[in-house]
Each structure stands twice: as C-alpha cells, then as structure tokens.
Amino acid sequence: MKCKHSRIRKLLTLALSASASMASAQQAHFSDGSARSMTMPADRRVLPESELPPLPEVPTGFFDSGLSETANQSSYTLDYLLQLAAANNPTIRQARRQISGETAKALQAGLYPNPILMYVGEKINSDGSAGEFQGFEIQQRFVTANKLQLSRLKYRQRAQVAEHLAIAQQYRVSNDIQKHFYQTLAASERLDMRRELLKTAEDTSVTARELYNQGQTTLPGIRRANIDLQQHRLDLLNAENEFAEAFRKLTAVIGCDISLGYIDGNLRPQRALPTFDAVYAELIDNSPEVLAARAKLAADHTAVRRESVQWVPDIVVQGGPGYNFSNYDPVYNASVRLELPIYDRNQGTILQARNDLARQREEIRRIELLLRERLAMAYRTYATSLQHATEYEGVIIPERQRAYEELLQSYKENRVDWPEILDAQTALFTARLQQIDQFRDVRIQETLIDGFLLEGGLMAAESSTPPGHIDSVPKPR
Amino acid sequence: MTPDEDRRQFLKLGSLVAAGGLLAGKSAAQQPPSAAGPPVPMAGSHAGHESAPQPQIPADSDVKAEYDGFSRFKPSRGNDPDSEFYLGKRVPGFRSVEAGPAPFEAPDLTKLPWKMVNGAKEFHLVPMAVEREFLPGYKMNVYGYNDTMPGPTIEVNQGDRVRIIVTNELPESTTVHWHGFELPVQYDGSETLTQNPIEPGKSFVYEFDIHEEGTFFYHAHVPMQEAFGSVGWFIVHPRKVFDPPVDRDFGLIFQNFFIEPNQTIADSWRMDWNWHTINGRSGPYTTPLVVKHGERVRVRLMNFAPMQHHPIHLHGHTFWVTGHEGARAPKTAWIPRNNVLVGIAQATDFEFVANNPGDWMFHCHMVHHMMNHMTRQVGPRIRKNVSVDQYLANTATRPPVDASRDDPGFATPGYPQEMKSMNMSDSMMETIWNRREVQGMRAMWPMSIMGLMTALRVLPEDLYHKVMETDEPVDKGSVFEEIVRRFGNPDDYEPGKMKMMPGMKM
Ligand SMILES: [Cu+2]
C-alpha cells in the first residue's frame, strides 16, 4: 500500500461480478434441459428445446481479474480524491522543488566573491637570493554596478515564474483528477445501462424462442437473437474494461493505489458557462501559463539590465606583506586591477538578452493565442455536448420514455407485440447511454475550461529556466 | 355415486336453486304476484323443470305454439322439409299483419327525423367528422353523419317521396349515393359522373320517389370516406306488410377499421383491419339483440367492410335467408342456414323463430374478426409470474428475464394460442355491464364477445320483462342460470367465475 491514506483502503464490489454470476445462472437454466420435466411426450415436439441452437456461453476467454476483487462497498468523492492527489502526486512536489531551485540560484547568484589568499614568491634567484619578494597577498574583487543584486533579482523573479508554473501544475493535476473522476463516474453509469441492455437482449433471445414455438420466427431468427445477446455481453465486458481503465488512470494521477470502487458524484452539469469572450478574457488575465510568461518577461528585463552592466569592470585589489631577500627588508606589494572594456563590452550577450526579452514578449502572445485555439476546441465540444445533453434531458429521453410507457400500456391492452416493446426499451436505454456520454463530455470540458485548459497531471513539472547560454556559466548570473 | 360426487351434485344444485331464488325473491319483493305484468313464478323452494312457468301464447294473439311439428317454444324442425312451416319458415310472429311492420331497430344508432314539406319527407343529412366510442374509453376519429358513425337511419315507407338535403361539414368534398335505389340518375350521387361534388360548407338536395321496399343504405361515394365510416341505413317498409309478420326487425352494420395502438385516427389506406364494429361498437360493447321466447325475428345484416367479407354465424338457431339488399326473395328461394357469407356492400335479411332460450353468439366466423387487435402471444403475458405492470412500475430499469421456459405448454408446438391476460379496466367493465340488455348474463361474458361479435338473447316473457322493462337490479349470471334451470340440465351447470384471474382467456 503506497498510499498515504491507507486507512481508506476500501475494497469495493463491482456489480459486474454479480452480473456475471447471474448470467451464468441463466445459462444453466437454458441448458439444463428443464423441458425434461414436462408431461408431454417428447416425440410430439416439432423441435425439442435441446435441438434449438443453444444460447451462447457467457464469454470466458479472458477476464480482467482486477475487476472481480471481492470487496467492501464504499465510495470516493471528488474532494477526497483531490486531497489524496495533493498529497501524493509527484509532479506537485516536483513543481515545489522548481521554486526552491530558483530561490537557491538567487541565493547563489547574489553571493559576494570570496577574497583570494596567495603566497607569492617573486624574482627567485635574483643575485642568488631567495627572491625579491616572498610573502602573502590577499586579493579581493570589488563588484561594481550592482551586478550581484541584479543577478539575485533575476533569479528571484524566476522563482516567481516557478510559482506560477507550480500553480499550473496543480491545475494540471486537479483537472486530470476531475476529468478521470467524471470518466469513471460515466463509466460506472454506462455499466448500469449496459446491464439493462443486456437484460433486454436476454429477453430478445427468450422472445425468439417463444416466437419460434408459435411458428413466428425461424432457426436463423434464433441465431440472430444469439448473436445479439453475445454482442451485448461483449458490450458489457467492454463497459467493465472502460470502467477499470478510467479508475486506474484516476489512481495513477492521484499517485497512490486505491482499490476499484464506486464514485460518488453527480454527472449532471449544474450550470452553464459564460460566453466564449468572457471565458477567454478571464483566461488571459489569470491563466497560470500567462502569468508565468509575464513573470518570465520581468526576469528577462532583469537579465538585460544584468547583462548591460556586465562590462563595467570590477575592481580587483591585491596586496600583502612580504620579505625582500635581496635587500633583507620587509616590503609590501599592492595592485589595483581594472579590465579595460575595449573590445568585449559584453555586446553579444546583451544582444542575446534583448533578443530573449523580445522573444518572451512573443511568447506571451503565443501562449495567449494557443489558449484561444485550445479554448475554441474546448468551447465547441462543451457547447455541443451541453446542447445534446440538454435536449436529451428535455426532449429525447422523456419522449423515448413516454413512447416506451405507451407501448407497455398498449401491450397491457393486447395491442402491440412484445418485440416492439423490446425495441422501445433498447432505444430508451441506448439514449440514456448516449446521454451519459454527453454529460461526461460536458463535465470534462467544463473542468478544463474552469481549470485554464491545463491537463497532463503526470507530465514533469516545467522549469522556469529556459535552456541557454547565459545560464550555463559556472556561477549563475 | 361416491359420497364425494353426491356432495358435488348437491352443491351445484344448491347454488342454482339459490340463484333462482335470489332472482325470484327480489322481483317478488318489488312486484307482488297480484300486480299487473307478467307473473314471476320462480320459487326458491323448487328446483327443476316442473316449477318453471310454461311459455304461453299471449291472450291477444291467435298464433299457435306448434305448426306442423315445428314448435316456436323449443328447438324443432317440423315434420316435412317441403312444409311451409319447416324450420319455422312461415311460422308467424306474435304480431299481426294488420299491426304493420315491426319497428326497425338498429342497436346503438339513431334515426334521422323528417318533416313533411311540399309532399315529400324532408331529411337533413350532414356528412361530418365524428368521434365514436368503439369500446368504453376507445374514442375513435372517423367520418359519419349528424354526429354519429354509422350515420342515422333513414326510415320511410314504400311509395314515399323523399327530399334529402345534404350539407357537407367535412373539410373535403363528398357526395351521397343511395345504394340500390332506382332513382333519376341526377340524384345517384356518383361524383362527377352524375353530379358535381358537394364542396365543404355547401348543400345539395336529393329528391326522388321510392317505389322499392327492403334493406338499403346510403354512403359517401368517395372510397376513402367509405373506408372511414361514411354509411347509414336506408330502410323502406313495404306497402304490403311481409308475411309472415315478424316481432323484431334488427339492423346491424358490420365494419372494419385499422387503427394503430395509441391512435384514434383510422388508417383508411391499410389492407388489413384490426378494429371491427357492429353499428359502430366493438364486442363486448355491441348491444345484444334481446327477444322474447317464441318471437319471429328478422335481422338485416349489412357488410360495409372496406375489404373483407364476413361469414355470419348464429348459434342455437337455424335461420332462413329471406332476401338481400336487392329485394325480398320469393319464399321458394329462401334457404335455411346456420352461416351465411355476406360480401362487401351486401345486406342479407334472415328470419327465424326464437325457439331456443339463452344467450347465443352471433358473429363473423373469421377468427381474426373475433378480436379487436391481434397481437403475438409472446412476452410477459405468457410468462410465469410476470406481468407488464412490473415493467410499468419502474421504467428506469427492467425486470430480469427468466429464460427457463419450463411451462409445460412449451412441449406443445404452437403454444400458446389463447389471447392471454388482457386487462379490462373496472370502469370499462362497468360501462359494458351498465346496460339493461346484458343484465343477468354470465359473469365474465365480456371476455368471450370480441370484435365482430354480439349476442342474441332469447328470454322467457317474465325474464324479458324483468331485464328490459324494469329497473330492478339483476345479479350477474342469474338470468342465464334461471334459463338453464328451466330449459337445461342444472346438474351439469357451473356458474361463471365472478372475477377475472390473471391470464384468463380473452
Ligand atoms: Cu369477418
């Protein structure tokens, strides 16, 4: 159990194990030859039950054993899963490390250069002496033009970039959790619908046998019903596998193992989003990606300032006491050095920094446009699925429901055939299945749009430091 | 007999005696024997044939109970197929010739009133869209006349002059054809061939002398309107009353419609038909023909189905076919039958002496016409312990299906063939039972009269009086049981079940 919250290890039954056993119970019913108990002599039958095409076996070739874990019944709420993820998702910790890394660079960049202690022996063997100067010297570089402060400021600003990126990473994770949460929730509701559809398919095969006994269908008719039944069983298995996939993806983003279980939530969207323009304005004002890019622009400004003072020579003062073995007297050395910025006035790097700054301006614009592009797609998907969901909710499902009820009522009055009811039932449950997908799509897009379109909760947390020459010097500046 | 059998016989007899006593007791309480009206001689203390009142000829009639071996009061054929009275051929009803023709009665239909205007009987006939209740609660949209489908009966005498002012209230043009009349061609009602169609809101006046007698009808001469119900009786009483005279003169119009489930509008384009009506009502809402024991009865039966012929069968009696819509046949051409095929737009008159008391089926013999809407017998209604109510109770999910098929019936190819488990609502049952014509019939009789079916009730005088001429309550099954007591073998009789069980035969 890797999960920190091991106390909530809850083993959950998926009803599919129950449904599998039900189906096999029915299989037994079909094949156990219960017709034997009938009182009619077997030879009077046109086609005994045993000679009807048998019902297909319940699929047994491969079964995802993870799905059949016997377990307690418990459920996970979205809030709880988000808490788990906050504590366990590695990328969130990575993101925090990125901030600390930048802060550490700021510390390092602002450190004053150390003095250098030297032993100096000069002109050794002059006049056969040990040297004109043997002694100790101290050298100290005096940094000019606020270079260190500027370097520190630059990395502090990069730490701010990292903070925005960490917020973005949190959104990536929480968006992914919500996305997978709704996918899992939808998958479990789809399972319910698939079970209803399977019951209808089972009824269809029973009905085919009843029709056969009345001369109203043929052996191919029974075979068609068998095929239909088996396809619905496969559809149910598919729905189970989808559920397992969704749940496992969810646990992956959370960052710890929790057992397959029920999802406690409501798939129905509760509200409608504002207009595209309003959403987009909010996005460029507050998206962590945009904020990070803007913060990075500030850091790049500082980089330009920093590189612009790089040519201002530091003053290096050096000196110290020694002994002159030629004259046999204590002497002192002293020097002051200054690099003359005649050829290298750091022109290239300044230019590079300016280009970086200009590039970053374009980067902000690029991110804004990329957000617009992504929002366009998300908004379209959101609008389409919400329109569908609304009409399915308001018109299509109720109409299907009423048609089904009216047909049932007509059947009660001996006015329609049962196969017509089965068709109406299939249509109703299929529409509900489609509605689940629509709700799911609404919820996913809603989550993304609300969450600044950020996804990828398992992508490595982004660094605020771009790759480049300036930062590859031994001492960060 | 074993003691068990003894006991069973005793119980059967006892229940019949009790039922008879109940009927007698109630009527005795309300109507002392000294009061006017037929005697009610049933007594609780007696059982068996001896105690029953014997059928009698009314004092004011000079007919006989028996003619050449044919008895008007019990099933009989007579002595000689060549006799005028063989099978009751010319056995007169109680009514005298001098009393004129017996009143024409088309159950559940109205008559079109007329006024004498300028020497002609003037009728106002209005083609219109009509709502007709085929069964209680099943109000169907069809075409008819003057708010009814079939239209009201036009009833005149041979030699009359008629003027029929037709005012079209349909949203489409129409004409009216007077089926069978030898009239001036301009009034024949054939659209375009003889007249311009009557446009919506417009009128057309038909006027002609009637020299025919017999069974006629009128209908729209627009095929789809015919299929939609635009028809009515046109009965002409003969100047010289037909001999032998009848006591009853019934008219029944048989029709077919196709109306989808949850629909009320008939689909006149269909080639098959799922609703069947007699005078605009479907069994068991059709009104039985109630007659007195010993009466001579005429039934005029007209088939106005769009596409199908009807073999019409009357139980318990042999009838004479005395004519068709063209004219009354000379007696030498009459033929005795139990079943007669009535083709589309044909009418058949049949006559018989009601010499066999009881409730007799009177129906089209096509099995698909003996129900209202054929459905395949698969699904919950043939499954054990399953009802469609379980599905209706919760439509968010559906009950699982038991695939075992262990009903022994499945060992028999073709099972099931009965129409099972139809629900008739209580209010529907109440409406069906709420008519005097059905009082005292066996409990659950409505389960047996479906589609193109009705009943002929032949009742002894006293029971007829009680059922048809009083408002006294009559227990379910009591009249039938009394008839069994008087004319049948009560030892072998079991009363009808009072309550419909799920899965009971329709
Ligand atoms: Cu028929």
From TrEMBL, chain A:
InterPro entries: MdtP/NodT-like, OMP_efflux. Pfam families: OEP. Residues 222-249 form a coiled coil. Residues 1-25 form the signal peptide. It comes from Aureliella helgolandensis. GO terms for molecular function: efflux transmembrane transporter activity. This is Cobalt-zinc-cadmium resistance protein CzcC. The gene is czcC_2. Belongs to the outer membrane factor (OMF) (TC 1.B.17) family. Keywords: Coiled coil, Signal.
UniProtKB/TrEMBL annotation, chain B:
Its EC number is 1.-.-.-. Keywords: Oxidoreductase. It holds the Pfam family Cu-oxidase_2. It comes from the Bacteria. CDD domains: CuRO_1_2dMco_1 (cd13860), CuRO_D2_2dMcoN_like (cd04202). InterPro entries: Cu-oxidase-like_N (IPR011707), Cu-oxidase_C (IPR011706), Cu-oxidase_fam (IPR045087), Cupredoxin (IPR008972), TAT_signal (IPR006311). This is Multicopper oxidase mco. Residues 24-34 have a biased composition (Low complexity). The lineage of its organism: Bacteria, Pseudomonadati, Planctomycetota, Planctomycetia, Pirellulales. Residues 24-63 are annotated as: Disordered.
